[in-house]
């Protein structure tokens, strides 16, 4: 059954459906952030698509527009220690569940980017849902969630770069670039790093630095 048929068969209106997507899942440092968004029947979000296909400038332009026009929106976060404790997939589910639970309007149906739905234990309640492969480029509500998650996370990482200098976080946002990996080798991991991820591999305890909070 195609995604479109399932969507139509459910009989849900657009204002009952939340799109969900994440940002930062493949990073070596920083949190994984999930966005959830319910769009109205009509909206004006020119160029809305997968956040990875948009420039940082365009994401910043869309970010306030989505928040202003959305029926409801929210983000959920899972930090590096939690990622190391339960693994990145489970931490991503937790972040998605937190985003959905924080929506001011309760959705009746979820559309999740990727190839997995959110387990019930992460949502805390039963909600009908489906996954949509490459949904961030197909489903506007997922696209909006993608922009929310990516922009929120990038802003957060720029702020955290000031607390954890030397890693170039504001340039690579925690992804495993050559410069980032070299900085980890030179300085050792900090509290933002995911210690269970390859290429981080701490030899000693993470260096003591300022608290995240």
From TrEMBL:
Q: Which UniProt keywords apply?
A: Cytoplasm, Endonuclease, Hydrolase, Manganese, Metal-binding, Nuclease
One short Pfam family name for this protein? Answer: RNase_HII
Cofactor comment: Manganese or magnesium. Binds 1 divalent metal ion per monomer in the absence of substrate. May bind a second metal ion after substrate binding.
Q: Which PROSITE patterns match?
A: RNASE_H_2 (PS51975)
Q: What is its main location?
A: cytoplasm
Q: Which Gene3D superfamilies match?
A: Ribonuclease H-like superfamily/Ribonuclease H
EC category = hydrolase
Cofactor(s) the record lists: Mg(2+); Mn(2+)
> InterPro entries attached here?
RNase_HII, RNase_HII/HIII, RNase_HII/HIII_dom, RNaseH-like_sf, RNaseH_sf
Q: What SUPFAM superfamilies does the record point to?
A: Ribonuclease H-like
Q: Where is the RNase H type-2 domain?
A: 15-209
Q: Where in the cell is it found?
A: Cytoplasm
Residues that bind a divalent metal cation, according to the entry? 21-22, 113
Q: Which CDD domains match?
A: RNase_HII_bacteria_HII_like
Query: What reaction gets catalysed by this protein?
Result: Endonucleolytic cleavage to 5'-phosphomonoester
What are its E.C. numbers? 3.1.26.4
Please explain the role this protein plays, according to its UniProt record. Endonuclease that specifically degrades the RNA of RNA-DNA hybrids.
Q: Which family does it belong to?
A: Belongs to the RNase HII family.
Protein name in the entry? Ribonuclease HII
């Amino acid at each position: 059954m195609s995604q479109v048929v399932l969507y139509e068969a459910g009989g849900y209106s657009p204002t009952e459906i939340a799109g969900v997507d994440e940002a930062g899942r493949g990073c070596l440092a920083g949190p994984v952030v999930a966005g959830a968004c319910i769009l109205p029947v009509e909206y004006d979000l020119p160029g809305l698509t997968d956040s990875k296909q948009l420039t940082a400038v365009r994401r910043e332009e869309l970010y306030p527009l989505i928040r202003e026009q959305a029926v409801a929106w929210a983000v959920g976060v899972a930090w590096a220690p939690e990622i190391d404790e339960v693994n990145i997939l489970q931490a991503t589910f937790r972040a998605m569940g937190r985003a959905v639970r924080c929506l001011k309007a309760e959705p009746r149906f979820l559309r999740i980017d990727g190839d997995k739905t959110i387990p019930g234990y992460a949502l805390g309640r039963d909600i009908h849902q489906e996954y949509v492969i490459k949904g961030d480029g197909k489903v506007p509500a997922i696209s909006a969630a993608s922009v929310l998650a990516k922009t929120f996370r990038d802003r957060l990482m720029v702020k955290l770069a000031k607390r954890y200098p030397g890693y170039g976080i504001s340039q690579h946002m925690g992804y495993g670039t050559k410069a980032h990996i070299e900085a980890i080798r030179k300085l050792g991991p900090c509290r933002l790093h995911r210690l269970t991820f390859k290429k981080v591999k701490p030899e000693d305890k993470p260096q003591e630095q300022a608290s995240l909070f």
